[in-house]
Automatic annotation (TrEMBL):
It is a multi-pass membrane protein. Pfam families: Gly_transporter (PF03458). It comes from Streptomyces purpureus. PANTHER family: INNER MEMBRANE PROTEIN, UPF0126 INNER MEMBRANE PROTEIN YADS-RELATED. This is UPF0126 membrane protein. Belongs to the UPF0126 family. Keywords: Cell membrane, Membrane, Transmembrane, Transmembrane helix. It comes from the Bacteria. The chain crosses the membrane at residues 12-31, 38-58, 70-90, 123-144, 182-203. Residues 13-87, 99-173 form the Glycine transporter domain.
Amino acid sequence: MLQELFTPSVQHALDLVGIFVFAISGALLAVRKNFDVFGIAVLAEVTALGGGLFRDLVIGAVPPAAFTDLGYFLMPLVATVLVFFLHPVVERTQSAVNVFDAAGLGLFCVAGTTKAYEYGLGLTSSAVLGLATAVGGGVLRDVLANEVPSLLRWDRDLYAVPAIVGATMVVLCIRFDSLNAATSAIAVLTTFALRLLAMRYHWRAPRAWNRRSSTREKPEKATA
């Protein structure tokens, strides 16, 4: 199905761009945590490939693409070298990195949902795996860095919700037999736009109604 939406070369190029941007975010967190070069490389690889690796193992697409395509493995290492030597410059371009990260979120949730359905999963399960493809690497990154995953933090701008919307759009298109390059692009762009709006206006998910807590929390500036 993916081959019907995009040519293999286009799909591969989009994958590499998304992998590179996700790897940048992992490498930057490693620098902030004062990791050595090996730690930076590990966090870059995990962030970039973790979600897709989890998806492929669940659906039985083995060996996973991360181990069969050398480009997928090398791209995070390129990001590692870039951040290792130029992290002050990369930090200053964080806004641009966030924009590309939002694009990667859209691409990965759509591609992940589509691939899961190709391997025989139902619509709901495909959407869940599409979400996991898009955000799984970031969760693993934060766990390895000994942080509460930003996905679960109340003081971070919406990240999973745009991916959920994109994955839902894909399964609805599949359900009504209208998934094609145009509708897939619309799902990607919708996810992308929602993430950008969330960052611009600091949209956040609501917490428990009438919540009571003896702990006062200080919100942090969103960087995810």
